[in-house]
Amino acid sequence: MSATSAATPPRERTTGVAGGPGGPRRRGSTLLRHLAVVAVAGLLLVGVSYAVEPFRNFQLATVAAYLCATAGLTVLTGLNGQLSLGHGALMATGAYTVALCQNAFYDRGVTGGLLLLVSLAAAVVATVAVGAVVGVAAARLRGPYLAGVTLAVAVVVPALTVTFDGVFNGEQGLSVPVEPPPLALGVYFPYERWQLWIAGAATLLALLLLANLVRSRYGRTFRAVRDDEVAARLAGIHVARTQVLAFVVSAATAGLGGALLAVLAQSVSPGAFGLTLSLFLLMAVVIGGLGRLTGAVWGAVMLVALPDLSHSVTEQLTLPAAAAQRLEGNLPLAIFGITLVVVMLAAPGGVQGLLSRFGRALLARWRVGRS
Amino acid sequence: MDRFVFLTLDGLSRGAVYAAFALALVLIWRAARVVNFAQGAMAVAAAYVAYSVASATGSYWLGFVVALATGLLLGAIVDRAVMRYVDHTSPLNPVIVALGLVLLIQAVLGMIYGSEFRPAEAPFSRGAFTVGGLAVLSPYDLFVFGAVAVVVCALAWIFARTAVGLRMRAAAFAPEVSRLLGVNVGGMLTLGWALASGVGALAAMLVIPTELGLHPHAMDLVFVSAFTAAVVGGLDSPPGAVVGGLVVGLLLSYVSGYAGSDLTPLAVLVLLLAVLLVRPGGLFAPVAARRV
């Protein structure tokens, strides 16, 4: 749906209400351009997956899984102005759905390479359903009220896995059986590379759809609603419907991200999807640059790189074991917190905002130099 | 019937704490139009300081006073060092900054104290008196009621009867005019933050001995419950916050008593959603026109 609506070239720019980053008018089809970018990124990813060691492959796959969720969140919060602290809970929905599906398949002895696709699709569908319920409530709420409700969702949903531990197995969580890579790829094909391929393919597909959605009519209505609800309604936009749509799209990607995380870790437990995860996702999109898909990439990279970095920092210091463990567990949180506050105060555009400003300044200097 | 009486009294005592915490949220909302999502983390930080002081000196009451002082100071610092510089044009910004503070404070607490539960002592016995074979309040419950009542009355007196309270209300109601009339609007804002954070610290000191103990995340669910309480009463109404706190306390007590304590988080979420969808301004708000 989103892809076809974006396939028409952006000839008439809606003026007035949209007000988003329209930029200079570009030639050619948006869909083709995005397809080209995705194809290049996919080829790069395959190349990289052969070039680096298995552990890096796994980390890249985790980045891809997080990227799914951050991209969806940045569309919701950055482009439609709805703050969600509940995306960790939506990821949990996706993750648990995948776990339940895979377990159901394996208990019945059904095997096959395409089953994972079915499970992932089921995860997206389940999260869409949950997202629609939350989204309908969210569309009626503004500012701090919305934040409070989604915060409650983030705190409550992981607790539900303990309440209904007959299905979700409480704090222990569930294991997620996943097929080994197909034999056609060779007997010695590393499992981590296969994980990266799965996660990368799913994420690129999600990003392609999101990128087209953002540049489509729907993307413009998202921004119009964010900027001025009254003006948007006067322009004939159904405000509540637009907000629910944005929430559902964002929930779908969050569910996919959570499902991918579960497939990568081959297990799910409520501890991994607590309030901290929801806050981390929000931090990631704000620090990366709210409302930009490239910012979501920066954020997802940070989510994986920072704990790794703090691990190597604490290894450098000679500390007693208990103190080192405390420091290592909490250093990423502290860095995230400080960075978030500083970014909000000093550079609200985030990393991507700084980069594009820097790039524009360079371009201007180059033009001045030439003339 | 015995059980119902016990649950009611227990719920009221729990609700008193939620009322205090909700009152802290309402104070900041009225002063600065910000819901302080970092309130829980700030209160836990104050409680940890009290824990350190109490275990160093052996005096609970010294720790209690230090907790209140830390709360006041922390509120003032957060306003002066951070919140003042936040761009308030979008309501998202202060919320995001507050969440950054949550991460930061919880991380610092985790680094210093580790993330295991530490037992928090109560100054009075938590065993209930029995009246005619009926288990009723414990001395600690009476202490909770007394402390919250003192705070509520003190705040009411400050805002209604003193010059400082009048200035604070004026600064929140019409900042520009108040500034022209010689009110130190920024100072009043800082004072509001300090007061609210002090009340939050008191609530944390009261609630933590009744729960699992001190932990960097100890106030997460309490914050959600108190936010619900504030919304039930209407974010703009201090008496509403008190009533809302008692309502939420009673509800949680009944749910955990009759249906199982696992369901209390879900009950909070359902109540919050129900109130927001049916009466978004809270039970005590005047009917007002809403944009769009």
From TrEMBL, chain A:
Record bears the keyword Oxidoreductase: no
Transmembrane parts of this sequence: 31-52, 58-76, 88-106, 112-138, 145-164, 194-214, 244-265, 271-290, 333-355
Chief localisation class: membrane
PANTHER family linked to this entry: HIGH-AFFINITY BRANCHED-CHAIN AMINO ACID TRANSPORT SYSTEM PERMEASE, HIGH-AFFINITY BRANCHED-CHAIN AMINO ACID TRANSPORT SYSTEM PERMEASE PROTEIN LIVM
Protein name (database record): Branched-chain amino acid transport system permease protein
An annotated Gene Ontology molecular function: branched-chain amino acid transmembrane transporter activity
Region feature (Disordered): 1-25
GO cellular component: plasma membrane
Membrane topology term: Multi-pass membrane protein
Domain of life: Bacteria
Naturally occurring in which organism (per UniProt): Micromonospora avicenniae
Location relative to the cell: Cell membrane
UniProt keyword annotations, A-Z: Cell membrane, Membrane, Transmembrane, Transmembrane helix
From TrEMBL, chain B:
Family annotation (InterPro entries): ABC_transp_permease, BCAA_transport_permease
GO biological process terms, semicolon-separated: amino acid transport
GO MF annotation: an example: transmembrane transporter activity
Transmembrane segments: 12-29, 36-54, 60-83, 95-114, 142-160, 181-208, 214-235, 242-260, 266-289
Chief location: membrane
Compartments it resides in: Cell membrane
Membrane topology field: Multi-pass membrane protein
Keywords recorded for this protein, A-Z: Amino-acid transport, Cell membrane, Membrane, Transmembrane, Transmembrane helix, Transport
GO cellular component term of the entry, any: plasma membrane
Pfam families according to UniProt: BPD_transp_2 (PF02653)
Similarity field: Belongs to the binding-protein-dependent transport system permease family. LivHM subfamily.
Name this protein carries in UniProt: Amino acid/amide ABC transporter membrane protein 1, HAAT family
Lineage, opening ranks: Bacteria, Bacillati, Actinomycetota, Actinomycetes, Micromonosporales
